[in-house]
Write a structure and sequence with these properties.
The chain is mostly helical and about 120 residues long. It has 4 helices and no strands. It has one domain.
Length: about 120
């Protein structure tokens, strides 16, 4: 909707509206505080994704305006989505929520915690 050029956007627009409405309902139902509206994705992450899309053969819109539109749209649901993942105890996925605490990265192949050097 914001980044790819020359592709249909109807399904994506519908998914965005339904998803944003779901997040708003979750915020209301669980009484989340109304946090600042931020995209929750760093510009560098967005630029990296654009580079991967371009390398895969997609035509992209002008990147500065695509970022402006993307961050504006994402800010409408990002903080509520982050609060939902925290409330449900769901580990954060790429581009969703606060990724600063990732306990699964501290585990070895056996699933046991790997001791951290002191």
């Amino acid at each position: 909707m914001t980044t790819l050029d020359g592709v249909p956007v109807g399904h994506a627009r519908l998914m965005f509206k339904v998803g944003a409405h779901l997040v708003a309902d979750m915020r209301s139902n669980f009484k989340y505080s109304d946090h600042d509206q931020v995209a929750g994705v760093e510009r560098e992450e967005f630029d990296d994704a654009c580079q991967r899309l371009r390398k895969a053969g997609y035509r992209l819109r002008e990147q500065e305006s695509a970022w402006d539109q993307f961050s504006s749209m994402r800010s409408k649901y990002a903080s509520g989505l982050n609060e939902t993942t925290k409330y449900l105890g769901v580990p954060p996925a790429p581009w969703i929520g606060d990724r600063s605490y990732l306990p699964h990265r501290e585990r070895g192949p056996s699933g046991r915690r790997v001791p951290t050097p002191r």
